[in-house]
Write a structure and sequence with these properties.
294 residues, alpha/beta, 7-stranded mixed sheet, 19% helix
């Protein structure tokens, strides 16, 4: 890979990025690539919580189809994408991941303007802390404009809804702060650039609404700057990957078709975060406690 170069961009980062009408293109060579399906049309313009010039850390990736979409569709070129699984386990759980990873790694090798790293065995609760599961120097050096965690979930540890809520909140059954969301927030904050933010997407409805993600963020002095509906079709080629792996034979469960919401968290200390300016034209009337957009 060539030496790291800062890519200039004349695009403002004071508002959520909307995809340009024409693709800017990237290094396309005649080789076997994942074949993303045609995105479905949606009646509203999706909100995209990043700009192509942003340096983005992706946490808890499944088959890396989301990372692939950010690179191919939005021309994001500074990506550190991580997953908890080892390379071998990932390929077994999500066979389709092999093509995505190969394409992303090839792009980084062949184009010195592309800085993409794929990291395995990275624990969302240990980001940048050093030691096993922390992501090493690529995560530890920080300076990320966005730290994104899509659909955090600990998997099928238990079928008891109350226990699942506690596990995913980061509170164990004894009531002490432990893993996942709270510790993820704690680990992510030091990795942010001065005006960076944390972006978390979760499904709507129970049991996910019981996680109280807003309250969990307050534990580490983060606040919700805004939230909006997550539209999977805004990311061509992306398919929701189950924590436990693909359903044999394809199955009927498709997470990307479920209602989901994205939350953008900024620091409570008053430091302005990028990408949070909201158009008064597109906002509905709100109460003082509301930050939700359609």
């Amino acid at each position: 890979m060539g030496k790291s170069k800062k890519q200039k961009s004349n695009r403002s980062t004071n508002a959520p990025y909307q995809k340009p009408s024409k693709s800017q293109g990237h290094n396309n060579k005649n080789k076997s690539k994942p074949n993303p399906p045609r995105p479905q049309q949606h009646h509203t313009n999706p909100t995209i919580p990043f700009d192509p010039s942003n340096r983005i850390l992706l946490v808890g990736e499944g088959d890396f189809s989301f990372t692939y979409s950010l690179y191919t569709h939005y021309q994001c070129r500074a990506l550190v994408a991580t997953c908890l699984d080892s390379a071998a386990t990932l390929a077994e759980k999500y066979p389709q991941s092999t093509a995505y990873v190969q394409e992303l790694e090839d792009a980084a090798c062949e184009d010195e303007t592309v800085h993409i790293k794929i990291l395995y065995g990275v624990d969302a609760t240990k980001l940048g802390k050093g030691g096993l599961g922390s992501g090493g120097k690529d995560v530890r050096k920080g300076g990320f404009d966005r730290v994104m965690f899509n659909f955090p979930h600990v998997g099928g540890l238990t079928k008891d809804v109350n226990r699942q809520v506690r596990y995913n909140q980061g509170i164990n059954v004894d009531g002490t702060l432990a893993e996942l969301l709270v510790n993820f927030f704690q680990a992510a904050v030091p990795l942010l650039a001065p005006e960076g933010c944390v972006v978390v997407t979760i499904f709507e409805g129970e049991p996910y609404s019981l996680w109280n993600v807003r309250d969990l963020a307050r534990h580490v002095d983060l606040k919700v700057e805004r939230s909006f509906k997550f539209q999977a079709e805004a990311y061509p080629g992306y398919r929701h990957a189950r924590t436990l792996g693909n359903i044999e034979g394809g199955g009927g469960w498709k997470g990307e078709e479920r209602d989901a919401r994205t939350y953008i968290f900024g620091r409570k200390d008053g430091e302005k975060t990028q990408g949070h300016a909201r158009s008064q034209k597109n906002r509905k009337s709100e109460t003082s406690d509301s930050d939700e957009d359609d």
